[in-house]
Every structure is written in structure tokens, then in C-alpha cells.
Amino acid sequence: MQLADHFNVLLRDTVNLGRFKLDLLDDRVGAIYRALKADDKIGSLVLDKIPQGSWAHQTIISPVGDNEFDADFLLLMKEKSEWANDPKTYINEVYAALHRHSIYKDMPHMRKCRCVRLVYKNSMHVDIVPYVQLGDGRDVIVNRDANIWENTNPEGFTSWMHTQDNVADGNLRKVIRLFKYLRDHKNSFTGTRSIILTTLLGNRVDPIKKLTDPGYYGNVPTALLHIISDLDAYLQANVAKPSVPDPSGSGVTFDHRWDQTTYSYFRDRVHAHAADIKAAYVEPNKETSVRLWRALFGDGFKAPESQSNGSKFPTGIGAATTTVGRSGRAG
Length: 331
Description:
By secondary structure, the chain is an alpha+beta fold. The chain has eleven helices and seven strands. β3 (109-111) and β4 (116-120) form a beta hairpin. The protein is globular and about 65 Å long.
């Protein structure tokens, strides 16, 4: 059985990152941005902040237990000609600015390959990704390990996500969250990065299938069934790890984010989950269907306390997906 009302409860109460934490994230990113903007050395280079990744795409989920959650934002910076042949300087200087700050200098902060990470104890970490629009027209981020520029198109990716989610009747983001929940909370297909998962699932949304069957993505369980089944068919046709191009058209791929071993494990797990999802979906007995869905998603899969109080949409992220601005957040 579909049990769409149970999925609304699961998303709202178990899977979605709560409104309090989303607001806390927003406040902290704003504070980090203001601190960098006020820095005596790099403040004049700091132009804007742009949420990216699961935060921007509305696919962020609640962390496991007391684990911290994470979010990324792009720090748009002015091109500095003196650093043109030494891109890693952007990451080093953002790190140094945090190190100079009266508050952030005492918080764990570290340089990663493409970002500076700032860690809030027992709460979250924020990845600050320097982002530069070069004079030759390229939008780039820094690969500090190789000391090179990497092309990017964050607004293009967010726009693609918005388009695919609209095709899926607003259910693609919810399916991504549910599948990330299986990865993180059920330890399934561990090692598959969110950008890979988001791209593969988004690429399975097909407007032609919706033309053939207008209800193909009509609610969360139906969208889950069809998107995961279509992903399974794609993966089963590819024993070797396929290339995963950035759908924004940046010209890069995400192939470096996993290897053949990780891919093979992911392929096997998706095949198993596709069968489990289909079994729960087509089961005509409600009690048995609930048991099968709970075997996948746990005890958070349950009916609303009162049907009259059941919400059509989960609260917090993903409640509306009609308008996407520069930040990539809907609503």
C-alpha cells in the first residue's frame, strides 16, 4: 500500500532537519559572512554568500543521533590578480581570517581540499567554499590539493534541481531525503556522496514518463517506487562505474567522488532496496505493508495522530518548492 500519510509523518518528524536547526544554520552562516566581510585583509574581496549543496537543494536531513549536521556555502570573492597562479591562496586567506577573529580563532577550523571547515561543538560544521568569477567568464572554486581552479555552476545545478523536482510534482527532493536517510541512519550504501546520489536520482526523473502516466510521481511513495526502480534499472545495465556529469553544464564530472568498489556496493544495495520498496508498495494488506515499510524506514513510519491534523506537506524544508532565488532556497 502507498500509505502517503505515513510518509508525511516520517519526513516531518524523523527525516527532515527541523526548523530550529535550519534557522540556527542561517544565523551562523550570516555571522560567518559578516565576520569575513569585516576582516581587514580580505573583507574588500568578499562579495556575497550563496548556500550550496543539500542546504540549497532542500535535501538536507536530520543527522544520526547526536552527530553534527553539515552545510556548505559559497563565499563569492573578487578576483585578485596576484593570486591568479596560486588559487589555494583563497582558501588559505579565508582560513587566516577566521584565525584572526576573536570568536572563530578558538573554534576548530581547518583547510580542506575545496573549503575551510568551521566546527560548532556538538552541533554542526559549516564548509566555506571560496568561489570566484574570473575575468575570462569562468565560475570557479579552488582545488587546494592540486592548486588549480575547478569549473562550477552552482546556480545552474540548483535550477536543474528545481526543474526536475517540478517534473516530479515536488517529490524528488523528498525521495532524495528518504534515500539519504537509508544511507545515514540504516548504514546502507555507505560511501556514496550526496552529490552523486542527488545527481543520479535527479537524472531518473523523466518528463516523458509523466506524459505517459500523469500520476507517475503523484505522491511520495509512488515517486519513491518509480525513481528508485528506474535508478535500479540504470545501475543494473552498468556493471562498470558510469560517468556522472554535472547536470548544470559546468563541463566537470563527479567521477572522482567514488570508485568502482563503492559503486558496486551502491548498485547492489539499490537493487535490494528497489525490491523492498516494490514489495511494500504493492502489498494489499495494510498491516503487512506497514511492517514492510518499517523494515526499511524504522518506527518513524507511522500514521498521523489524527487524520484531521495530518499535514499535506512536511514542515520545515521542502514545504514549498515554487520559487528559487539566488540562494537556491525555495519559497
